Amino acid sequence: xxFFIVQSCGKxxxxxxxxxxxxxxxxKAGCLLVRQSFLDHLNRQKEKIKSLSESEVIELLGRxxxxxxxxxxxxxxxxxxxxxxxxxxxxxxxxxxMIRFNAIGxxxxxxxx
Length: 113
Known about the structure:
Elements lengths: L1 H8 L11 H6 L7 H4 L1 H7 L8 H8 L4 E4 L5 E6 L15 E6 L5 E6 L1
Antiparallel strand pairs: 1-2, 2-3, 3-4
């Protein structure tokens, strides 16, 4: 009974429409070009990711392809949308989803670079 009460206090994860999350997670670093096909849908729905915690973002989108920790406990998650260096491509510029977390671990900024 206590478990049910604690469980019901959490907010549900947002649904990203027209994005197959399982295929997204399988396309590590965008090497399979699956994430690239979701680019327009993701761009229209990126606001749904704002205010999610780091663990909620990982639950929704999987582990990031890259993360950075900067001063003042700011953290960045990057999800590659196009094949980049990890896939053996030499291209410097490739699209990626960038999520910036504030000092308390909530997504503050979501953009596609």
